[in-house]
Amino acid sequence: MHTTPLYRQLANHYLDAIRSGTLKTGERFPSIRLMMEKHAVSLSTAVQVCRELEDCGVLEARPRSGNYIRQPDVLATPRTAPPPPLDSDIYAGIHQQVSLVLKASQRATIEVNFASACCAPELYPLKALQDPMIKALRRAPQLLGTTGTTAGHIALRTVLARRALTAKTHLSAEQIVITHGATEAINLALRAVTRPGDTVAVESPTSYGLLQIIESLNLRVQEVPASAHAGINLFALEQLLNGPGRIKALIVMPNLQNPLGSIMPDAHKARLVQLCAEHNTVLIEDDSYGELVDNDQPLSTLKHWDRTDNVIYCASLNKTLAPGLRLGWISAGRWHARVEMLKYTQSRGCDTLAQVAVSGFMRTPSYERYLRRLRKILTQQRQQMSAAILKYFPGGTRVTRPRGGTLLWVELPREYSSMVLFHEGLKAGIQISPGDIFSNDTRFNHFVRIGCGAPYSPQIDEALATLGQLLNNQR
């Protein structure tokens, strides 16, 4: 039996690492000594590995500096199996259309990202969070060596409960569970109140991430029309609730809905809560964007109108404060014990150090000052982006005017395809969110969601002009 020499086995190992991107062009290659120690090989074997890689054209020696990765021609025809095609069944059970779009984005080189719903990193109070994190470590260095409670750090839960009071929402710190963002919060809420095969209603259009969650839990989805003016259509919802099928739960974003940016009037919020209680449909509220409303007057939550403990409240700091910390929370009321146990089985507790730092910052007046400043910046950015879209995009294009947040919902003339624009945009290094992924229907295939979280710049202006030209090319 033919056995591949050890030096060639190691050379193939490093070739695969270069092809996969683990080792990147321009990076320094491990030294001869390090290879000898890491792989327990002789000096001659390590040298042969380097010579083999040089012969393949992936390694170049620099005098008195060492070996470095270079981009070779050989990598254009990799020996390993090619990546699976985009229509692979590996996405079964996690909403294939959404997954295909996300995968295509991951494979592209993105220079301008309009698909993000977050702000640019420089707009977040990173230094203000760094300082309390360092102080917390100095006071309690054991934080990194211990696991936190499943429900989360009591200091953060207390801050969140007190801030909810400003929106006339009564949450108990003991009834709050800290989660890995709103995504985990909604996952927990659905797992607590549904079983596979149950039907869950959502706004249409809705967050594509929500469609992924619902499908991954083997739930059926029922879409209810929503408008940028007032959110979910209560008449259509009532007709659905009075229909033959049972709607086990309804998930809504009443404040700055994603992608519409709508804000439900208070009267609609009260009626929605009442409708769900009458039909024994659990109401799951996602309030991830509420604090980004333009004015300083807090918006009321659905939980404020809840008199029967039928509303599960979910929220997040990912969009408003620190996406990198992945902190969200859920107040599940009568389902609290089940949610806490599900949280333990799903992911245990969240990072304690991050919770301590965030709670320390949110307790100070600096947090409110930061939010006021951020709201003003986002208002300006949305206005600039909207003006540029109407300038560069085809005549007949319409853009929502949300009263806060980071998103614009753009309606193109019907003859244009947002999915075609998505793929052509990727080729130009520009990422958008095509309307197709915000519904299981095809009604939004001429819509685009544009993120406005980055300060307006010549690069952004040029990218929008490019998108406009790509649209004109569809004619």
From TrEMBL:
Keyword Transferase set for record: yes
Leader sequence residues: none
InterPro entries (UniProt xref): Aminotransferase_I/II_large, HTH_trans_reg/aminotransferase, PyrdxlP-dep_Trfase, PyrdxlP-dep_Trfase_major, PyrdxlP-dep_Trfase_small, Tscrpt_reg_HTH_GntR, WH-like_DNA-bd_sf, WH_DNA-bd_sf
GO molecular function, one term: pyridoxal phosphate binding
Pfam families membership: Aminotran_1_2, GntR
Keywords: Aminotransferase, DNA-binding, Pyridoxal phosphate, Transcription, Transcription regulation, Transferase
Domain spans labelled HTH gntR-type: 4-72
CDD domains hit by this protein: AAT_like, WHTH_GntR
Coiled-coil portions: none
Record EC number: 2.6.1.9
Homology family: In the C-terminal section; belongs to the class-I pyridoxal-phosphate-dependent aminotransferase family.
Protein name: Histidinol-phosphate aminotransferase
Organism: Pseudomonas fluorescens
Originating gene: hisC_3
